[in-house]
Amino acid sequence: MGFGRIIACICLGVAVFALSAQEAELPADPLREKALADDPQSQLQLALEFFHGHNRMVNHDLAVLWFRRAAEQGVPEALYNLGVCIQHGYGAPQSDYDAFNVFQKAAEAGIDEAKLELAEYLLWGIKPELNRDDPTPEIKSNPGLAVQYLTELAEKEYPVACRRLAEIKLASGDPASAVEAVTLLHKAVAKNDVPAMRMLADCYFTGNGTPKNYQEMIYILRRAFELNDYEAEARLGFMYENGYGVPEDRKQALEHYRNASGESAFAMAKYGDFLLEGDLVEFDLAKAIALFKRSAELENPYGLYKLGRCYADGIGVEANQTGAIYYYKKAADAGEVNAQYQLGRALLTGAGVKPDPEGAFYYFSSAAKQNDARALRELARCYYSGIGTKADPEAGLFCLKLAAAAGDEQAQILLEMQEKPLEAASGGTL
User: Coil, helix or strand for 139?
Assistant: First the structure.
């Protein structure tokens, strides 16, 4: 589709009339007069003022019309801003397809920000848009080209490009790529990119691409916190709650969670924990449940897990094992280790769900990869008894030793009872 056709679709053949009709109602001013005289830079400036509300009332319709006029005269910045308007439906019908084509023109004209938008589209592709007079073809994903754009921009130290490229490298699971990702994140952090700060902090916590360093993690989180990032404050609460890199201080943790609970879904659920326990704060069951529900609505894995536990145990809500399984699964699939363990137990025993030994083994394995002692013990049981997997006593013993080393008391006892059948000795649960 040519650029001229895109513009025609956007304006629906009434652009000139709409422009003249709306502009006639405005008082004369020098910028508008220059724009009407087809000065392209004046048209761009006028469009930006209408878009942002500088020196005049916000009017996205007029912003799009003036971006269009400037774009027709070859102003690259106007092309990019027109693409943004179409992408978000500001003053024009929302269309990712049309936005993609406009961004292509802007990228060809040298606008780096347009290349960043193209990279995002190319990572996922664009499905056909059928609800229009001229249905669009599918734009297939092209990760290679997306990475090419991101790499080019990362070399110019664009923080968003550094962060997105780092995300891709971390997701690959390749250790060498993870090291490269950390380098990219440092570049973004140097530009005060807050999401990159959180990502880099997570790398220091897990040791992904860099050695574990809780002190460095806390330093970065505090930088993000100083930039008013509530997710960073929630993470600081977690560090104080568990004594990672700082002396354990539940009072300090509570303050961070409480302060961040208005914005951070994770902080909501953690503050709910304190309210439910009545520790350092007055017990408030109703508020705790409300916070768990809100956190779950925001798809926070820990919030989903906590709401699942409430349904499983009938805490503040009517007990509902099916509901518990629903939330456990959403949380488990998002990587929440406690949910993975609980879902594994449910699938093993058939609590609220049809027994599924293979599924139990899968979720125990997922939690075990996060060094969850309970899951490691249950995984040992699966290997010893051939539950959901082929029996492998050697693997079972290995998992049992890991569980014991991680502090699981049942695993420690079982290690001392190796002369007895494990399946007979491991019937209990935590």
Answer: strand
Collapsed DSSP state (helix, strand, coil) of residue 394: helix
Q: Is residue 154 part of a domain?
A: no
Q: What tokens does 274 get?
A: 């304190």
Q: List C-alpha distances in Å: 236 to 120, 194, 370, 374, 397.
A: 31, 14, 20, 26, 37
CA distance 196 to 201: 8
Q: What is the pLDDT of residue 58?
A: 96
The type of residue at 210 is T
| Surface-to-core class of residue 323, CB atoms within 10 Å of its CB (0-12 exposed, 13-18 middle, 19+ buried) | middle
Domains identified in the chain, total number: 1
- Does some domain include residue 96? yes
pLDDT in tens, 88-97: 999 999 999 9
Q: Can you give the CATH number for the domain in which 94 is found? A: 1.25.40.10
Which tokens go with 78?
């106007």
pLDDT single digits (tens) 33-47 = 999 999 999 999 999
Query: Which residues, other chains included, contact 176 with Cβ-Cβ below 8 Å and sequence gap of 6+?
Result: none
Element (H, E) at 362: helix 357-368
Please report whether residue 9 resides in a domain.
yes
The crossing angle, in degrees rounded to 10, of helices 230-242 and 194-206 is 20
Cα 19 from Cα 151, distance rounded (Å): 41
Residue 358, domain member (yes or no): no
Per the structure, the complete domain to which residue 51 belongs is given by 3-140
In one-letter notation, the amino acid at residue 87 is: Q
Cα–Cα distance, 128 to 97 (Å, whole number)? 8
Q: Which amino acid is at 24?
A: A
The first and second tokens of residue 167, run together, are 């995300």
pLDDT score for 133? 85
Residue 29, pLDDT score: 87
The residue count of the chain comes to 430
Give the global pTM. 0.82
Instruction: Let me know: does 389 contact 382? Beta carbons within 8 Å.
Output: yes
275 with 281: CB under 8 angstroms?
yes
